[in-house]
Specification:
This is Dihydroorotase. Keywords: Hydrolase, Metal-binding, Pyrimidine biosynthesis, Zinc. InterPro entries: DHOdimr (IPR004721), Dihydroorotase_CS (IPR002195), Metal_Hydrolase (IPR032466). One of its GO terms (cellular component) is cytoplasm. One of its GO terms (molecular function) is metal ion binding. There is one protein chain. This protein has one domain: TIM Barrel. It has an eight-stranded parallel beta sheet with strand order 2-3-4-5-6-7-8-9, with helices on both faces. A three-stranded antiparallel beta sheet has the order 1-10-13. It is globular. A hairpin with a 2-residue loop joins strand 11 and strand 12. The two termini are 30 Å apart. The chain is α/β, with parallel strands linked by helices and 358 residues long. Helices cover 32% and strands 18% of the residues.
């Protein structure tokens, strides 16, 4: 399991934080949306919806239809206070004209770059990033965002080294060739990702998003005592040294790391199978788990910077809304509704140390 430090505050302690935004959220499609949007709206002021649906959201009309579906679920679920923004799914064949078209819609903030075959529903992703250079250039001109699943999918590369090799062979060149392009290295999972971002000039427009599961758990959670499929995600959980580096980075107040849960639900049946899907569902308690992790290293004071860095990067204006939490344990349900099926949430049947009260 995780090796969180023992630093803590007394039970009953209350804290007030800026209202969090999640800049990496999987709402899936179909009936699942009606379950997931209300859960997210209880915790986030803005959520960035991922486009790796079936079929993927590769065009502006598809993005508009998906956004409308999400907004309808938001209204039906009583979550009108949460804003939803979208990114399109980047392919080798995406055109500059598509960039110009999407720039006309405020809710579309950029693209998601999946290396082909790197994760769930990524088969249509990028096979050669050089083919995307015209799109990168236009994104940079328009100050739009490129969100990247920062791993290679080369079969010969060890799964634990995918992020390191991506840094060495792909993103270093992109950053050099497009110094003004806003880039999110999503769900960084290694000290290599942390160090790369820290090594960039202060003027760099590259940030890294960090998930609650990558700062709370190392690969022992997945592998010790038998394989735990509900901890299987991509990027895969790494060694304890990487987990500790990610938590240090998230709480460093460097202005380079942001909140992105990568809450990615799959049904229990699709996880507990001979070839289980990659993804951790943490949307039910993501904010509370971030607070727990920051508390573990005595850095509750750094939460505001972590939250506000993402808002600043994406240009989110929320009028100074706040959220109040109390240190009070509550038990996570063993399973939760996922449309017409069920999902097993992170820390199912176990206790979470913080509770949202307002």
């Amino acid at each position: 399991m995780s090796s969180l430090a023992s630093s803590s505050v007394p039970n009953g302690t209350k804290i007030t934080i800026p209202y969090p935004c999640d800049f990496h959220h999987h709402f899936r499609q179909g009936p699942a949306i009606s379950s997931l949007v209300p859960i997210a709206s209880q915790r986030f002021g803005t959520a960035l919806a991922m486009p790796n649906t079936k079929p993927p959201i590769t065009t502006v009309p598809l993005a508009i239809a998906y956004h409308d579906e999400l907004m309808a679920a938001r209204k039906e679920g009583g979550g009108e206070m949460m804003e939803i923004v979208n990114v399109l799914y980047l392919t080798d064949n995406t055109t500059v004209e598509t960039v110009d078209e999407m720039a006309k819609h405020d809710f579309i903030v950029g693209f998601k770059y999946y290396p082909a075959g790197a994760t769930t529903n990524s088969d249509f992703g990028v096979t050669d990033f050089l083919k995307c250079y015209p799109v990168f250039s236009r994104l940079s001109d328009l100050n739009m965002v490129l969100c990247i699943h920062s791993e290679v999918s080369t079969p010969t590369v060890d799964i634990f080294d995918r992020e390191k090799v991506f840094i060495e062979t792909v993103i270093t060149k992109i950053v050099k060739d497009f110094p003004n392009l806003k880039i999110v290295m999503e769900h960084i999972s290694t000290i290599h990702g942390v160090n790369f971002i820290k090594s960039l000039p202060e003027t760099s427009k590259v940030v890294g998003s960090i998930t609650p599961h990558h700062i709370m758990y190392n690969r022992n959670a997945l592998l010790v005592g038998g394989v735990k499929p509900h901890f299987y995600c991509l990027p895969i959980l790494k060694r304890e040294t990487h987990r500790a580096a990610l938590l240090e980075a998230a709480s460093s107040q460097s202005g380079r790391f942001i909140m992105g849960t990568d809450s990615a639900p799959h049904t229990v049946g699709s996880k507990e199978s001979s070839c289980g899907c990659a993804g951790v569902f943490n949307g039910h308690a993501a904010v509370e788990m971030y607070v727990e992790a920051f508390e573990s290293v005595g850095r509750l004071d750094a939460l505001e910077d972590f939250i506000e860095t993402g808002k600043k990067f994406y240009g989110i204006q929320d009028g100074g809304r706040t959220m109040e939490l109390v240190k009070e344990e509550w038990r996570v349900e063993e399973s939760m509704e996922l449309g017409e099926d069920v999902v097993k949430p992170l820390r199912a049947g176990e206790m979470v140390k913080w509770k949202i009260v307002r």
